Amino acid sequence: MGRVLLARDLVQEESPVALKVLLPEYRHSTTGFIREFVTQRSFHHPNVPRVHELGFTKHPRGGEVPYFTMDYCAGVPLILAIPRVATLPQVWPWMVQILRALDYIHRRGWLHRDMKPGNILVDMKDSSDTSTKLIDLGVASRIGAPPEKVFIGTPEYCAPEMLSGRRFDQRADLYAYGLILYEVIERRRPWTGSSEVELLTARVKTPPPAISHPECPQAVIDLIGELLQPSPGDRPNNAGEV
Q1: Residue 114 bears catalytic tag
Q2: φ and ψ at 241, to 5 degrees?
Q3: What is the pLDDT along the chain (242 residues), one digit of tens a residue?
Q4: pTM of the prediction?
Q5: Which of 95, 132, 160, 184 is the most exposed place for a label (fewest CB within 10 A)?
Q6: Which residue is catalytic, options 9, 103, 114, 136?
């Protein structure tokens, strides 16, 4: 629905910023775009990019569209970082940082709702506690809000309760986190396909294939098993616990 461009902040010593602009064919989603800015503006966490400025501009293809600027985060999406991982201990700090970001967002009463490797940025040259960022809060919702009549999200990384249209809470984000953790270790998703019905059936009726990576500790294998439980009540309650 939009594009993210690299820009320069002419006021702040021309420092780099990311500029997210809504495409003109999605102008009907302007309210949601502004809501994303307002939501992210309330977050102050080292693993979530800060937003700075909201405005409107004329698009080259015609019409006025909204944009906002946010921290420029070096690195690549986790989906591109996975093939470059040499040993599993390299990924544990990334996954811990994402949990910290999730815990912060959940404690503030929000769900990310679109957890996936494409929404995690990793700076592989940085070993600090700020090398990993959780991005794209475009479909974030309040914990406890009723589900929409139309499915919103990425089926490949959605919990069964989201796929079936039932109410969901922070444990749905944790299920998605479990899917990501599995993929980071095994370099493949536990269940293939992209059909909502197909994935829902598989996740409810078929356990994920066993972890085969020889470097993966048994405790992490057990944790993934808990995170990928079909019933939310059988999963950990919050990201801090994970």
Answers
A1: yes
A2: -65, -40
A3: 899 999 999 988 889 999 999 999 999 999 999 999 999 999 999 999 999 999 999 998 888 999 999 999 989 999 999 999 999 999 999 999 999 999 999 999 999 999 999 999 999 999 999 999 999 998 999 998 888 878 888 999 999 999 999 999 999 999 999 999 999 999 999 998 888 898 999 999 999 999 999 999 999 999 999 999 999 999 999 999 99
A4: 0.94
A5: 95
A6: 114
Which residues, in sequence order, are CB contacts of 13 under 8 Å at separation 6+? none
What's the per-residue H, E or C state across the chain?
CEEEEEEEECCCCCEEEEEEEECHHHHHHHHHHHHHHHHHHCCCECCECCEEEEEEEECCCCCEEEEEEEECCCCEEHHHHHHHCCCHHHCHHHHHHHHHHHHHHHHCCEECCCCCHHHEEECCCCCCCCCEEECCCCCCEECCCCCCCCCCCCHHHCCHHHHCCCCCCHHHHHHHHHHHHHHHHHCCCCCCCCCHHHHHHHHHHCCCCCCCCCCCCHHHHHHHHHHCCCCHHHCCCCCCCC
